[in-house]
């Protein structure tokens, strides 16, 4: 599922670049809605990946702390992008 979401993310970036030149309001709504769905899926996938990686860690040592730190960074980036796409979707365009 993660690879499908990543491919969707690449498609979302390409669609955003195309819309940069077209400046279509409807396409902007569509890209924003798809962006919300993709980053919601990526957030769920990252949570499961963090859980799976920490279950394999032998103890709560340095390696587990590094995994938790990188996982927190991934989740932070997912939440920031999700928030930005929600703002683009529900925000005032005036």
Using only CA atoms, what is the Rg? Answer: 16 Å
User: Globular, elongated, flat, extended or rod-shaped: what is the shape?
Assistant: elongated
- Let me know the number of strands: 0
How much is the average pLDDT? 89
| Span of the ends, CA to CA | 37 Å
Give unreliable regions as ranges. none
Main pleated-sheet profile: none
Give, in order, the helices and strands.
HHH
Helix content: over 70%
Portion of residues in beta strands equals under 5%
Oligomeric state of the chains present here: single chain
Structural class estimated from helices and strands: mainly alpha
Structure report:
The protein has 94 residues and is mainly alpha-helical. The chain is 87% helix and 0% strand. It contains three helices and no strands. The chain has helices at 2-22, 25-56, 62-90. Helix 2 packs antiparallel against helix 3. The longest helix is centred in the middle third of the chain and has 32 residues, at 25-56. The termini are far apart. The model has no long low-confidence stretch (mean pLDDT 89).
SSE layout:
Elements: H1 2-22, H2 25-56, H3 62-90
Helix pairs in contact: 1-2, 2-3
In short:
The chain has 94 residues and is mainly alpha-helical. Helices cover 87% and strands 0% of the residues. The model has no long low-confidence stretch (mean pLDDT 89).
Short key terms for the protein model shown above:
94 residues, mainly alpha, 0% strand, elongated
């Amino acid at each position: 599922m993660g690879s499908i979401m990543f491919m969707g993310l690449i498609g979302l970036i390409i669609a955003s670049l195309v819309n940069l030149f077209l400046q279509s309001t409807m396409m902007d709504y569509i890209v924003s809605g798809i962006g919300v769905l993709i980053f919601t899926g990526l957030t769920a996938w990252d949570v499961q990946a963090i859980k799976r990686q920490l279950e394999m860690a032998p103890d709560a040592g340095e390696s587990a702390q590094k995994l938790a730190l990188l996982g927190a960074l991934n989740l932070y980036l997912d939440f920031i992008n999700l928030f930005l796409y929600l703002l683009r979707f529900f925000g005032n365009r005036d």
